[in-house]
Amino acid sequence: MAIEMRKAGGPKPPGLRHRIMAGFIGNVVEWYDFALYGYLAGVIAPVFFPSDNPTAGLIATYGIFAAGFVMRPLGVAVFGWFGDRYGRARTMQISVTMMALPTLLLGLLPSYASAGMLAPVLLVLVRMIQGLSVGGASFRHLSPTSWKQRPTAGAASPAAGPMSGR
After folding, report:
1. Distances in Å between the alpha carbon of 58 and those of 47, 81, 104, 165?
2. pLDDT tens digits for 138-163?
3. Nearest to 165 by CA among 32, 71, 60, 31
4. What is the pLDDT of residues 2-12, one digit of tens each?
5. How far apart are CA 138 and CA 74, in angstroms?
6. Distance between CA 166 and CA 116 in Å, rounded?
């Protein structure tokens, strides 16, 4: 079919190099955002937690960082099922969007001074969505590309070990 498309003058299908590069760029963007939170925990803590105990605020900020990691195995399972059901291209689009949207929301969240305990609760929710999408990225990169049959949710299981800290 690809040969017929080229003869007809249609667009050339993306080659392996282009697919690898697209996956690489998507993965770098997702992990950059995920790591940025960890690097800036000292800046984030006083914004989202009371200032009377800065050490407790920093520990809570890292706890929220860990919540994102806890969501990764669930992301593998959810995106594994979604990829089997609706296709990996759509799964990749949703995973990248689910990483970008919480990043935007993170910048729009209210501070502890203006919203009280609602601020850290919203921060936890945003980080959990980001963790879910990083798990989805893991499924996307580990799922098979050359099977003649559609992959099953079992294709996501190799990622469950590393994503859960094993």
Report:
1. 10, 36, 22, 22
2. 655 555 544 444 555 544 444 444 44
3. 71
4. 455 555 565 66
5. 11
6. 36
